Amino acid sequence: MTSLFHPSVSGHPSATGRDALQQTLGLGTAPLGSLPDGPLWWGPQDRDVAVATVVAAIEAGVAFIDTAPFYGWGRAEEIVGDAIRDVPTRPPLLTKCGTVPDPNARSTEDHSRDAIRADIDASRSRLGVDILDAVQVHDPDPATPIEATWEALMELVEDGAIAVAGLSNHSIELMERALSVGPIGVVQHQYSLLVRDVETDGVLDWCADHGVPFLAWSPLASGFLVDGFDLDATHATDLRRRLRWATTEQARSDLVRSALQTLSEQHATTMVAVALGWVTRRPGVYAIVGARTPAEAELLGRPLPPLTEEDLQLLDQAGSA
């Protein structure tokens, strides 16, 4: 199984000295890029607190940091760049490309060679690094053949601008087509107790068969699986108020939360730890965990509970109800 943290992939020493369970968690920065007029609004986010959050995550031993230009149109990347400037060592930096502003909509996809190169040059500048450890194509672009996109990314690998290229939210068909052009270093999809499509559509099995690390985004369902989560306490226009866990699938969300609460008490841990332990139970699966404060980031350094078959059955029953 390819390791995301192998020196040939990340360009950084592997973290073999850390607890293996802690190596499965990376910091997600989408909430840190929150802007009221941006593409993603999670409520107010103080910039200094955001920088301190990234530093705290690094100190906690996160395995990687995942960001994207889309997160505040560069704000999250700038925050990460400020945070890593003075740290003695840092984990691998993963960002994305291809999603660009659209004056008539929130965003659009442009995977042309020039657009990808411009995206990656801008990300390197905002992050303050010469080489990006991984760049993932953020979403599919129906107007551009994936083969052309992958050729552009392979050129950037050859040029030394990025270490590896990856795909986010792409189907197996597109992954296979990209693989015919060049190697895939990482794959990212949404995956949590409330979103399990990758189990049935073959994406998880494809990654395991090809030795490609799988990154689960939103493993805590945007906060709905977090201890003490209170939707009423979020900003009135917070994007989470429109998610299906708050509307059409609130009952299922409540059942999963109840099961997590039961297991967290049995294991003397948190709901977050149980939910992340479930997501990362398979070899080669890593979780991208969002944090907005240093206190939240520090939780990423704590061990995850080993879940029994009975635990897994309880969670499966709750999620399928």
Question: Topology of this structure?
Answer:
Layout: H1 7-10, E1 25-28, H2 47-60, E2 65-66, H3 75-84, E3 93-97, E4 99-102, E5 105-109, H4 113-127, E6 132-137, H5 146-159, E7 162-168, H6 172-179, E8 186-190, H7 197-200, H8 203-210, E9 214-217, H9 250-266, H10 271-279, E10 285-290, H11 294-298, H12 309-319
Parallel strand pairs: 1-2, 1-10, 2-3, 3-6, 6-7, 7-8, 8-9, 9-10
Antiparallel strand pairs: 4-5
Helix pairs in contact: 2-3, 5-6, 9-10, 9-12
Protein described:
It is a single chain. With 321 residues, the chain is α/β, with parallel strands linked by helices. Helices cover 37% and strands 15% of the residues. The protein has twelve helices and ten strands. The chain has helices at 7-10, 47-60, 75-84, 113-127, 146-159, 172-179, 197-200, 203-210, 250-266, 271-279, 294-298, 309-319; strands spanning 25-28, 65-66, 93-97, 99-102, 105-109, 132-137, 162-168, 186-190, 214-217, 285-290. α9 runs antiparallel to α12. The protein is globular and about 50 Å long.
